[in-house]
Amino acid sequence: MKSGDLVSCEYGGKTHKGIFITSRDGMAVIKLSSGYNIGVHPASCTFIEPSVPTPPRTREVNKTAGLPDLSIISTGGTIASRIDYRTGSVSSQFDASDILTAIPELAQIANYRTLPLAAILSENMTPAIWQELARAIYTEIKNGAKGIMVTHGTDTMAYSAAAISFMLDTPVPIIFVGSQRSADRPSSDNAMNAVCAAAAATSDLGEVAVVMHATTNDDTCAVHRGTRVRKMHTSRRDAFQSVGLPAIGSVAYPSRTVTLTPDAVRRGTHKPALHDTLEPHCALLQFYPGMSPDILRAYDGYRGLVLSGTGLGHVSTLLIPAIEKLVESGTVAVMTSQCMHGRVCDRVYDTGRDLLNAGVIEGGDMLPEVALVKLMWVLGNEKDTTRAAAMMQTDLKGELNRRSAHGL
User: Fold this and answer.
1) What is the chain's mean pLDDT, rounded?
2) What's the pLDDT tens digit per position in 69-81?
3) Which residues are catalytic?
4) In the chain, is it the N or the C terminus that has fewer CB atoms within a 10 Å radius of its CB?
């Protein structure tokens, strides 16, 4: 059997017809007419007829006068994917005709130029791809794009949004958007997220943001600042939330009305500028009770290390000499907190004061993952460790709040 072949199989005492997709873990994966997949023993399947190749689809994409020009840069994910019920596979489509075919409402909002930068699972994202993405976005802005949409897998989208925030000064919206549920599921969020992202990309926003479902209903998407957002749930459609400050805007659906808060940076505030140098030899380490100081030896020679400590920013006393040794060897060490809200303050308890004496830098209320990306950018652009430390404690792209908002 080949992928796409029509077969019948025995399952649950009944005979079912379906499309053979693949073999996995000794089982045959079959796509039923209902759209659901089942796993059955290959011996229970009987070949019926072979797959028939699907002819390529072509369609002219015409520009509509009066609509703004947006660029869609794809890095992977399922936001523009299309289900092929013949083979049961979901594939991402990157050219304009495919995207407009999958989500026709987009054509009412803007004209689009599409650029397939990568086709990867987001856990395979790397700093090198962040740099490619920053350069591609910068080129699109210089070529006249009025806004940028970046389609991205959700698992590491917050990292990428933070990276682009630091590497680019932008006069136009740069909107990261993804999908929690693939296009073949009735509860898919891909179409609404894409439409809301396009609306945000044509709005008065002038910074990097993530646009995803604000609730589990199809009524509103939230606009999250790229340096203050985190994926908070593995599968819910409203998985993304702003941390440390409210969302900087919202997009009502289906009206596509964009509302921005006073804190949101406005379009045209900054001139386009690219600062795409990163220091890849940085790491993020989460402390846990009983952690051995030996673990820190793995980071010998690293330029930067972000520690995700407990509470106000603590690790065990046993780790402090090893941290001090790293700092003395030239590693910039930044302390953040595992707590979702509040800020680091290492001046309250003895452990914190010992960490400060060891040369650890307080990371304020930065999210640990944002602190990592920022440290990579700072060390890529500033070789002097004293000035780098000062930059880490300076708000550059909305990643640091001087004061914590009440209740956040």
Assistant:
1) 89
2) 999 998 876 655 5
3) 78, 154-155, 231
4) C
pLDDT computed for residue 60 by the predictor: 46
CATH topology of domain 6-49: SH3 type barrels. (2.30.30)
| pTM for the structure as a whole | 0.84
Q: Which amino acid type is present at position 246?
A: P
Confidence of residue 194 (pLDDT cuts 50, 70, 90): very high
Rg, Å, the chain Cα set? 24
Give the right CATH number for 69-274 from 3.40.190.10, 3.40.50.1170, 3.50.50.60, 1.10.540.10: 3.40.50.1170
- What phi and psi values does residue 195 have, to the nearest 5 degrees? -65, -45
Place of tokens 């303050």: 345
Q: What are phi and psi of 160, to 5 degrees?
A: -65, -40
Distance CA 207, CA 110 (A): 19
Which H or E element spans position 381?
A: helix 368-381
DSSP for 214-245 reads SSSSTTEEEEEETTSEEE--SS-TT-EEESSS
Positive or negative torsion for Cα 34, 77, 228, 201: negative
Distance of CA 329 to the CA centre of its chain: 33
Which residues have a Cβ under 8 Å from the Cβ of 218 and sit 6 or more positions away? 189, 192, 253
- Residues listed for the chain: 408
Is 282-392 in CATH node 3.40.50.40? yes
Burial track 138-155 (b if 16+ CB lie within 10 A, e otherwise): bebbeeebbbbbbbbbbb
> Would you kindly state where each structural domain of the chain is located, as residue ranges?
6-49, 69-274, 282-392
Pairwise CA distance, residues 158 & 191, whole Å: 20
The tokens for 35 are: 């759209």
DSSP class per residue in 234-302 = SS-TT-EEESSS--SEEEETTT--EEE-TTSPBTTSS--EE-------EEEEE--TT--GGGGGGGTT-
With bands split at pLDDT 50, 70 and 90, how would you rate the model's confidence at 97? low
Amino acid at 346: D
The yes-or-no answer to whether 69-274 and 282-392 have a common fold is: yes
Residues 220 and 252: beta-carbon distance below 8 Å:
yes
Lowest mean pLDDT among 9-18, 271-280, 305-314, 316-325: 9-18
